[in-house]
Specification:
Layout: H1 9-15, E1 34-35, E2 41-42, H2 44-67, H3 84-96, H4 103-108, H5 140-144, H6 146-180, H7 184-194, H8 197-202, H9 209-224, H10 248-264, H11 269-282, H12 285-310, H13 327-334, H14 343-349, H15 355-358, H16 365-373, H17 378-396, H18 418-427, H19 430-456, H20 471-474, H21 488-515
Antiparallel strand pairs: 1-2
Helix pairs in contact: 2-6, 3-6, 6-7, 6-9, 6-18, 7-18, 9-10, 9-11, 10-11, 10-12, 11-12, 11-17, 16-17, 16-18, 16-21
Length: 523
């Protein structure tokens, strides 16, 4: 950094005798030099095979790792629990009866082919006015799981989901590499996030979070467009300061991905709105017409189906807890600002349910948010998406400490954490990269210990994963506050973490400002 403070990044690279690779040169876009996995500059023609080879290796590694999460039981009494069996129950009904009515499955107890609790499956919903028994969940995931369930039941579904999870992080790598212009750091950052304990467990948990993450990444890839709108001089490929590039074809792709998210869960509506507004801003006139038309059509179909099927805009009204409540009443029951404020940081550092507790490398992404905030286009949109989901998990989700593995409410945006991690690796010296390596190794060790304990029956993923006895996990427990009780220790640890976080954010912000050209306008 000495002697280059305040100069543009391109100036620093030129001073070192190399040419900084434009972000547009990674993955697609104008021909030009690109970085290989080893960081060397090489012609565009040679970059494409290596890029796809790196993506293929990442997919294979993650698929093999995720296969190890199969057969880790969710509870002592059943292999799957919580909402999982009800998604499969609807899938089974669609295959056996061609409808969403679950009465036949309960009468025949056909659910026992995938739900092995000796007491059978409980009722999660009340009968509709016409007698139908419906699952209180959006049907998108149940439809998506039809191929896997038809081929091999529960095991087939888990294999289908792990392949989708591996694909999600593979495409995330492609996205991050295109935005940052770096292949090596993007690959390592994505691998670290993909092998975090949260990603590992939810790769085969039967929840819509990972498929929704895949749809979100696909929408962002369509928005980014492979560098089609790269700024002159090697600027970021997704920059709202330049001409709109979203044409009708990619606009339709964005609309399709966002529509899929809504059918996976109405809880993803804030993410859909943010990405949809970004697409409208990015689109050419023809693309905007396509987005609006597709949005109106898909929205009308969504509303019609849910009103006719569930009697409201959401399926939650048939849940035994919310039976008879209107959509407005449901939203009101979920919102709480006073007693959930601690989750703003608790989602990261809670001793039992914090994602940073289970994967300390994710804590490094928080200072990286500063870079996202100061870069227009996709970086800032990614930060907005992560922030929106974090607010949903804080103030809308009924509980942070539910009958599920930690991180469920953040899983849909978890792949995007690779973006700030990759950027920090780009800009860090050897000390920062060594810290990343140490925390990534620690995180991987926790994931491995979790898998080993799960297969040995020491823990179950939905009931008591935090009882993991492995030293690599237990040794750091004293560093994290436990928000089941507000003791002096809880307050003290919280204060220490908040101060440390504020200092890290300040330091990164100062460094980012020093690296920006003095004449550059503030965004």
């Amino acid at each position: 950094m000495s002697g280059t403070r305040g100069r543009p990044a391109g100036h620093r690279a030129a001073a070192a005798g190399t040419t900084r690779t434009p972000a547009a040169a990674v993955g697609a876009g104008p021909a030009g030099p690109a970085r290989s996995l080893l960081g060397r500059q090489e012609p565009r023609a040679r970059w494409r095979p290596r890029a796809w080879a790196a993506a293929a290796v990442l997919f294979a590694m993650l698929a093999v790792a995720y296969a190890c999460s199969i057969d880790i039981r969710a509870s002592r009494g059943a292999a799957i629990t919580g909402d999982e069996p009800f998604y499969l129950l609807t899938t089974q009904s669609l295959l056996e009866d061609g409808d969403l009515d679950l009465r036949q499955q309960y009468e025949r107890e056909s659910y026992r082919v995938f739900f092995d609790h000796p007491d059978g499956l409980w009722l999660q919903s009340v009968p509709a006015a016409d007698g139908r028994l419906l699952s209180p969940h959006n049907p998108g995931l149940s439809v998506l799981l039809i191929p896997g369930f038809a081929l091999a039941g529960l095991r087939g579904v888990q294999v289908e989901l792990l392949l989708l999870a591996a694909l999600t992080f593979t495409l995330t790598y492609v996205l991050v590499a295109r935005v940052t212009g770096e292949a090596l750091w993007s690959w390592l950052a994505t691998l670290a996030v993909g092998l975090s304990a949260t990603a590992f467990i939810y790769s085969t948990e039967i929840y819509p979070e990972v498929p929704a993450a895949l749809a979100l990444v696909l929408a962002l890839l369509a928005l980014e467009g492979g560098g089609a709108g790269a700024a002159p001089g090697g600027g970021p490929p997704f920059d709202t300061g330049h001409a709109p590039v979203l044409g009708p074809g990619r606009a339709l792709a964005v609309a399709g991905a966002l529509t899929a998210m809504m059918w996976l869960g109405v809880k993803y509506a804030p993410l859909v709105v943010l990405a949809g507004l970004a697409a409208l801003r990015r689109a050419r006139p023809a693309g905007r017409w396509v987005l609006v038309a597709a949005g109106v059509l898909s929205g009308a179909v969504y509303v019609w189906f849910h009103v006719v099927t569930f009697g409201g805009l959401t399926p939650y009204s048939v849940n035994v807890v919310y039976a008879g409540d209107s959509t407005v009443e449901l939203v009101g029951e979920h919102l709480d600002f006073a007693t959930r404020f601690y989750r703003l940081w608790g989602l990261y550092i809670d001793e039992r349910f914090g994602v940073g507790r289970w994967a300390p490398v994710l804590l490094l992404a928080v200072p990286g948010f500063v870079w996202l905030a100061r870069r227009p286009g996709l970086p800032r949109l990614a930060l907005a998406l992560m922030g929106a989901q974090h607010l949903m998990a804080t103030f809308v989700a009924i509980t942070m400490m539910g009958w599920w593995f930690p991180g469920r409410t953040l899983m849909t945006v978890l792949p995007l954490y690779a973006l700030p991690l990759a950027r920090l690796l780009q800009e860090s010296g050897w000390r920062g990269r060594a810290l990343f390596g140490a925390l990534a190794t620690w995180s991987l060790a926790i994931t491995a210990a979790l898998a080993r304990a799960g297969h040995a029956g020491e823990i179950t993923v939905a009931v008591d994963p935090f009882e993991l006895r492995a030293p690599v996990f237990r040794a750091a427990a004293v560093l994290f506050p436990n928000y089941t009780a507000w003791t002096p220790e809880t307050y003290g640890l919280t204060a220490a973490w908040l101060v440390a976080g504020a200092l890290a954010l300040w330091r990164v912000r100062r460094r980012v400002k020093d690296q920006e050209p003095r004449s550059a306008p503030r965004n």
